[in-house]
Specification:
heterodimer; A: 843 residues; alpha+beta; seven-stranded mixed β-sheet; elongated; B: 347 residues; two-stranded antiparallel ribbon; 12 helices; 9 strands; rod-shaped
Chain lengths: 843, 347
Amino acid sequence: MKLPLSWLKEYVDIDLSLEQLARALTMTGLEVEEITLVGLPMPADDHLEFKYSGLTWEREKFVVAQINEVMPHPNADRLVLCKLDDGNGELIILTGAPNLYPYKGTGTLAKPIKVAYAREGAKLYDGHQPGQVLTTLKRTKIRGVESFSMVCSEKELGISDEHEGIILLDDDAPTGMPLVDYMGDAVLEISILPNMIRNSCVSGVAREVAAFTGKALRIPQHSITPTGESIEGKVQINISDPALNPRFMVGLIRDVKPVPSPYWVQRRLRLAGMRPINSIVDATNYVMMELGEPLHAFDYDTLVRRANGKAPTIITRPAEEGEKLTTLDGVERTLSSFTIMVADTAGSLSLAGVMGGMESEVTENTRNVLLEGASWNFVNIRRTVTAQKLPSEAAYRFSRGVHPALAKEGLLLGLQRMAAWGGGAIAQGIVDSYPQPYVDPQITLSADSVKRLLGIDLTSTQIAALLERLEFRCEVKGDSVVVQSPSHRTDIGEGVVGEADLMEEIARLYGYDNFPVTGLRGEIPPAFNDRTIQLEDKIRDYLVEFGLQEIITYRFTSPEREARILPAGSKPEGQDYVRLQNPISPDRVVMRRNQMAAMLEVMEKNTRLSQRMALFEVGQVFLPQPDQQLPAEPTVLSIAITGLRQEPAWDQPASQNMDFFDLKGIIETLLTRLHVQGVVYQPVERMPYHPGKCALIKKDDQELGIFGELHPLVKQNYDFGAAPVLVAELQLEAVMQQIPERHETGAVPTHPPVLEDLAVIVDEEIAAIKVAEVITQGGGNLLRDVRLFDVFRGEQIGEGKKSLAYSLTYQAADRTLTDKDAAQIRQRIIRRIEHELNAKIRS
Amino acid sequence: MPEENSIQQEMESIQQSALSALQMAEEEASLQQWRIAYLGKSAPVMKVFSKIGQYAPEDRPKVGQAANQVKNALEEAFTQRQQVIQQAELMHTLQTDRLDVTLPGRIPMQGRYHVQTQTMREISRIFGEMGFQTYRARDVETDEFNFELLNIPAYHPARDMWDTYYTTKPGVILRTHTSPGQIHAMREHAPEPIRVILPGMCYRYEQMDARHEIQFTQVEVVAVDKGITFGDLKGTLDRFARRMFGENVRTRLRPSYFPFTEPSAELDIECFVCGGKGCGVCKGAGWLEILGCGMMHPTVLKNGGYDPRVYSGFAAGMGPERISMLRYKIDDIRYFWGNDIRFLEQF
């Protein structure tokens, strides 16, 4: 909300600097986002916390002046010369303002025109350039006439974008007065919290300022003098559903003229972000800014005509499904039954609380105005605003709750303003239908409960004194206070909720800064023993230790993006996604089922930036479950590596590219470090992996994951380099199940080991793991370690054969092994592999 | 038969010529040559021993003694000379064996955590010290848990605070904040007291730009017990801020509004870059908005299974990306999940 400072000062005394005021407002929950100076100087405070912009009108350079005569320019039709008195005597100035043309050549004006005058050297905004461009007034010649000063438009003074003509000040503006003294202002942009809609008006903010500074509050009150014929019998009101429309009231003003409002009204509306239209519309907007009650003006004669000359009946009702109405923005709208309509016997008139209808709106020709003050169910207003995409100042307030008591205050003040600015006679009386009076909640609050929740010691009397500053009516009863909510706010609830609402007000008034800083005192609650998160962290630790880079990717994707991990043309089968109803872009329409696709995109994006990439991510994927509302969200570990095994150095040739076994090493080591024992790696053919370079990671019969080289047909879907891309996906829930709760350590051997090598020639198709198994069986418990260190194929070995060389470690816990012991073990191993694998020992 | 005197002279001359030859040896190789020449089998002094039989028996001890003296002197001179030469050679090596230390080193294998894992861990660690445990809740949520149970009924004006992603399943949305986890955690543990933090990914329907993301992490902090006060909230968050941003950092609570807390507040910290004087990071304000918080709304407590007249609690929610952005001067929030290696490598 844009709040002009001058307007606020009319309702409450302020002896704070602009900076102090902004800070005070912010600390009450009215966050000041920025401040625009409209004439006033920058505050002189040491440190400015807030953001200031705008224009300062130097006292000597900008003054109120009066034009005494408007004369034609000798060489230009579009320019005029003015005899202008700036308080220091009369001078001739030059202007092109079209709103002075009517006075051209009419001689000395009977009533001088009051204007905002900028002298030579004044800094102001250039009226001819878009936006706000600062310029300094310099002496120049325009069409042969010297010009050194200027009568200003609103744009030039930073009041609005208006540059059609110059500002015509009200007649009582004192000639010669520095302009900043006359109407220097500042606009505070305040962010209104959803529960503070009562403060989306000047009196609301003034009320808060008064409560916090203790200054007197002057909320505008009507002093209406009805002079016209009574409204009785001129209009009926028929509310069909009081829950939708608790109150509807109207007043009538006759012979009113829609004329331009006084300049100060126009200026305030503009500063508040509204466009002045005419005295009638301006009065409704002005009252909305004053009190927070949106009003609506109908052309009364239109209503009478629609009622065939009889007294109209205003009906409020839900819209018929599909009912149409053209609103005053010229749009024909099709409505739903949740929209509340203001109608008459001939049909709909306006969207209640949101926007008026075209037909019954006030025009230049309106003479008699029926003014509506009402209150509406905020839920319905909100639904209408959302459905019609029709935000308006009125709907903004009504969709957050406006107290019905404000309808009356607003209506009377509105009539008074219309009469004051546009003439006319206010009819005696008003027609008020208030079938569902708002009951202001009454809450009993004890000093104990304040202590329990806020942690401060306040007596019931102190509590009452605080709340009374915000106009709560309080009655102290012993240690409790019976509190009644004031009739301008609807954010206070009943019972325990009402108590919390009051706690917030007490806390605000007490001052958040004044609260003690205490710590939690209770026992630390029992542990959940949820290992998952700790283990995930451990997995991250190990992978980082192994030299991998963690990434975190978007969980949004599209089926097409995920299909890139399949060969072109093949489609994933029967895969259902968590689909978005309102995706932000076509490539983000579902939640991912697969973390690998996102990881490969990251790899692709970085492919030219790095010769070696080793990435991992721990995150969730989203798998819809049949017959369940919510998807499963399993945690997945994905790894992708590609490129050089080692970072190249200046004296070392580039290392080889990583392959299957680099990735396998990472996985094996990870699982070993997690104490997962007995994992087997089983060849498998599965997309998106190379059929011959892929393994399932299994423990007992449980699949923990899969890894391998990316299938060439998948790899070509991405812009990757030549190096193979190795990827792995592990199901972390399955891995977690295999991690023992605890593990035991073995004793550190004290007797020296015997080391020897054994090279075994076997048929090509025998898997390495099988050979290792047989060696282990043959070696018995003195064989501590079997490590493959070489695989060799060649002529010496023979076609279809391979040589596997193992380094063996023999060791006993209780003695030093002799050569004889070692020879015995070796013999046992050799016998076993010769027998079971038909192996030959390579010597 | 040689004379005794001549022997004496011969010995002296052997020693003289040997010592002067030794001075000529300037490296290990010539030193070894010298040793062969003057201390080897055919060296003059050694020959004296071999022909000692030629001397008169009464002279033999004297001759042997003299030869021994010369031999010992030469050996000692050799050792000394050898030390000198070795020392000189070491000095020479040290002088010449020099690296260009400005050549780049060999880069070890480096793994790295994503910056948000680092920030998240720091937050968890600090709250962990105060007894808060981590609780994980789901990303895809029901409208009921994300809104209704948090005191945000349908069409409530507060719903404007969250631009929501809806799924095609009615009533199923992507969580807009980690707050639904409050309800899950409370329902799982009520009426036991709880202290939990709920980290997780959240989603909002926004146009992406340098400051707005459609996906972001959040950490929710929740404590429920008997007797928890607004002062405790202030104290807990103040302690967090000081641990996170520096022991001297000042904090302030500023009234705000969230449907699920009351009283509600924003926590500002004094800008840790300029110390509150105003700078580019705090945009001149001197304060940085860090998190939203408040006392748990009675309706939320009730929905979580606690009697609001007996229990009280607080909740706070913060955006770890914002914390990282302030700390590391990251000016585009899209860097986080963009995973450009040039960004990731800076942490």
